[in-house]
Amino acid sequence: MKKWVKVLLSVISIVVVLTAAAILVIIFVINPNAYKPQIINLVKTETGRDLVMEGDIKLTFFPWLGFEIGSIHLSNAAGFQEPAFAKMAHAKTRIKVLPLFKQQLEIDTVQLEGVELYLTRHADGHNNWEDLLQKKTAPAGDKPMLPFQISGLELTQAKVTWNDQTTQTALHLNELHLQTGMITLHQPIQVKLTSAFVYNHAKPMQGTVDLNTQLTIDLEQQLYQFVDSQLIVDVTGENIPNHQQKLTITSPQIKTDLKQQNIQSDWQIRFAGTEDQLTLQGTVQVQQLLTQPLAQGQLQVNEFNPEKWAKHFGLPVLTLPDHLMIDRVSLTAQFIANADKLNLANIQLKLSKNTLDIPKIEFNLTNNNLDLNEFSLKALGATLTGQFKLAQLATAQPTIEGALNLTANPQEILKQFGQPVPTLPTPLTTASFKVGLQGHLSQMTLTDLQLMIDEQQLNIPKIQIDISNDQITIAHLAIKSFGLTAQGQLSAQMFKQPLAITGQLKVNTFDPRLLLKKFNQTLPQMSDKNALKSLTLETQLDTNLSDLSLKNLKIQLDNHLLQGKITLQNFKTPAIGFELQLGSVDIDRYLPPKEIKKGEKTQKIPEKSATALTNPLLSVETLQKLQALNLEGSLRIADLKVAGVKMTNIQLMVSGKDGKITVLPKMNLYHGNYNGQLLLEAQTNPPHIYLDDTINQVQIGLLLNDLTGKNLVSGAMDAVVKLDSVVTTLEDLQKMLVGTFSLQLTEGAIQGINISHVLRKAKAILKNQTPPANES
After folding, report:
1. How far apart are the C-alpha atoms of 216 and 254, rounded to whole Å?
2. Total of domains in the chain
3. Considering the domain boundaries, does residue 416 fall inside one?
4. Is residue 335 part of a domain?
């Protein structure tokens, strides 16, 4: 700053010297242009640069001594491409003669036209003006400066080009106009500057700037004060939010004290665009300005509506329920910075009723490290705390190390989302989540992840996240919940491809009775008191955002093992498939016990009431689900026992699509077999059901003996049943039932009954003939 002030004073001194020289020229010579070579040599001696003066020097005198010069060029530094460092098309000013005799300077408006300045910095850091600042200047001495007064400064049609090869950027200021009011020491100077600009980078932008301020200069005390400053920037570009933004920067006072080497300022930035004001404001104080600058101050973002400004900036709007809507946002912070570090302190971000507190953020500008030692976010009844360290931020692979810790009241969170609290065997009053993380943007490791809800736990020692290879790996996870323990491993892809998860899961053996008891579920009494005491599950999992596959599925209930696979395609309109195999199963173990005491008769089956006969068999909701059902599967059971009846080699084929549901059962039954078909057409109006069953050579005596415990019948039974009816009400189903039924018993016998006579009698009755006489 001091060097630039010296340059400015040098320019003013040159103007004064040239003016004094002009007076001498008028007095002692006739043609001032004859002294161009001396001026050029003087510039060469002082700067090492070549000065080209293309225009003539014109002079006027009394009562003003006028000075006017045409086009001049100052050459560039050695090694820089542009031929000129600075150009000027025309300059003009006047000095009053009489005040000179009183040792006073009264200068008319200084007019500079067509000034062009070319500033360049090479990739090695060298620039084309450092040689000018390094030139030795004569000591100022103690001689006081003559009182002076300049009517103003007018800079028109100026141009500044800044080419920074270290960042491959270029800034062009075009049509730059500068106009000031009266210039004198200790008095405010009105300054107005306007310019257009073009910034060339990967995504260029352009716009205009408009500056108005009042400048007061105290050279003796080295005080420079800007009052009521306002800078308006209007910028457009592809990389600008909404492709165009306008902002206004104001400052009531900027005070620069070069003697004390400090700057003090209040500032405010306002964004234009919506009726809801977005304002940034704060204070800044800079110390040790010319040696080791240190800046500190406060920053405040006043309350604004984030949804309105997100739309204005062309950003996506986060959609939340009305009771969670964030309609007001504000920010306060303190900062301190020097050439090596930027520290933010006492950061508080308010999001409606939620608050994020960060005591301190340290940003090391030398090695590009950021330390977030502690932060706290309170929102929705939860508190999130943690710390982070980011390193090598200027590289392509910045690293991160830190930890997160979340505590919450699940009931409060459910209330915030307007959801009821579910009835569970746990109070849902405490929840916590913690995890450590380290790595960089393409490869991250999460460590010691733990999720707890009351006494329920999820533990994952390590999660490997490899973004470059689109892979997330969980080598081991452990779950403890409601008395269950489970473990597994998972891997996923989600960054470059749609989400897909694969892995293995196993639920260790647990007691289903105890689990149901925790959920206040009462089980009916079972024949076997040891039934439903042990359950184990394991499977291979494959899923994505629309499909689910369970392969190598194994479910062990007591001593019954179910194996196979289940698939679910398209969660929105699911297509279900399964292939399952089951070993020996005794359903009777899980049925209520038969306890009929002696002399006690079985309870009669109550007759159906009139209401039961007319109630719909299928509700509208059930019918819709059947019509939408898309199902294809098979179940094979080696041995099955139900109500004492034993079946083997059971095969059950099920399919359902477009409202047609087909069930094809098949089994071996007491030295014979059974084949069936059930078809439900739910898409018709009214729905229809069709039944087609065939029984071949089933030993009826063995079947009834296992079913009833009595051996009253023997023989091989063949039967064919074909029926169909509507599925509306039970009354309609009975009325509309049609079909055929045939039964044949080979070598049949019923103890104490002549089967042949009974059949002949039944045949005669059906044909309305005289029944045969009774036989022994």
Report:
1. 10
2. 1
3. no
4. no
